[in-house]
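Researcher: I'd like a structural prediction for the single chain below. Treat it as a standalone chain; there are no partners to consider.
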Amino acid sequence: MKKLPILLLITTLMLLTPIISNVGTRPISISFYALPSNDAILPSQSYVWQEINGLCAWAALAMAMQYAGVNLNLYDVLAASSVGFSFAYFHVNDTMLMFPGPLYTQAEPTKFLADLYGVNYTLYIGSDIQYLEQNVQVWQSEGLTVGVIYSQDEAFDLMRKTIDTGYPLLISVDPTWLPSSDYDILREQDLTGGGHGVLVVGYNDTSGVATIIDPGVGSFGDNFGYPDDGRGNYTEITYTALNSAWSNRYYISNTLTPLGNAPTSIDNQLGPLIRDKLLGVGTTYSPVSASAYYGKFGEVGFRTMSTDMTASGLKSFLSVFDGIENEVFFKAALIMFIGLGLEAQVTLQYLSYRTALASLPSIMTLTDLNQFTEAGERALPFFAQLADNSTLVYPTNITKATGYVATTFRAISEAYNSTGDIDSAFAPYESTLDDISAALLGIADAWLDAGNALAEIWPNDFISQYGAVIAFAGGGIAVLFVLLVIWIRKKPSQ
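Model: Treating it as a single chain, here is the predicted structure.
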């Protein structure tokens, strides 16, 4: 039996992916030289709502940056971290993965954002995470800092110490343990194990209660909408519930504290990165991973998907599973989840990209971005054609996915499951799939033009980047050649 394909479908809140590293040869451990107090709580900052299912880590990061003295909103963070301009797609044999920028990687863009604004970023992670040593080696090569948490006591001491110094602790938790009724939808279906980013801003050892800021309430379910009742802001959670939520995510924690360095050269650091993210330079997405070479990124990812999401492309993918047990049922389910995944990922990317594009001129104030913005905005109608938030609002109920993409794939799925004839199931929808393919291609073309507009400002061709080095090296080679000729003429022939 062939292995099941991997399809990325957002079913819970955004994962706070631990892709970080420590500078040096070994991960740092936690040690404290002064006992924390018994209780403390931080003054409030502006509450940042994540707006859509999947942006919790970035909303929490925006608030953490505010505590560190950098006034950024969610849209600014999506722009200045570059995740709003990023997309990754993997189609290898029986595996199909779609990653909008905010989900593909998080620690590296967080590190970039922190460095850009002079903020110190450290990530802590539990010692029982799988392949810790190997991961740390990768993280170290990325230039990030990681501390290892060896026990619940160390995790809670880190919480106390961070808050005592005046800053929140950004942690990843399993949301089923959070107190808000918003997460009843997950508890009712026993959907544990997901990841969600919140800030811990207070603790009280006497009552055994911590205080969190949760950007995720109202981002899905029947209560979708901004939490006007304030239920996500300064919410109390017992230490027992907090530990269950936190330990299930390997005590993943992040500290962001000011270094006192004023930001310099934001434009010249951020501009080339966004250029490469849009143009799909794999090594900017996965610097030390083989993923950089077999993944499709940026405009290349959308361009590849435009071929794969046609009737012929989908039938070719499904043919990998010919002969599998319960073939018709399996393929019908697969068709359904491809559509749901595509709609969810494009919807998340749409909000991230649209808001980042609008925010970027206020961040890169020294650069004329008119040509870039004009090219980038050409992608928006194509995103709008494909996006629909119902898939993300009701991640546990596919019957409530009412978007154009999801309903098209669902119809194909039901037809195939009913007849077992894949050609007849696809036939009525071939033109609709062609429209979906054309929209993906339109996004790819706009991203290509936008990336090239930045390349006009920051050239990315080999000669422009390395011409001076080549010229210097060429001169050195010429000198060596002359010396070699002189040496050969003086040396007797052998």
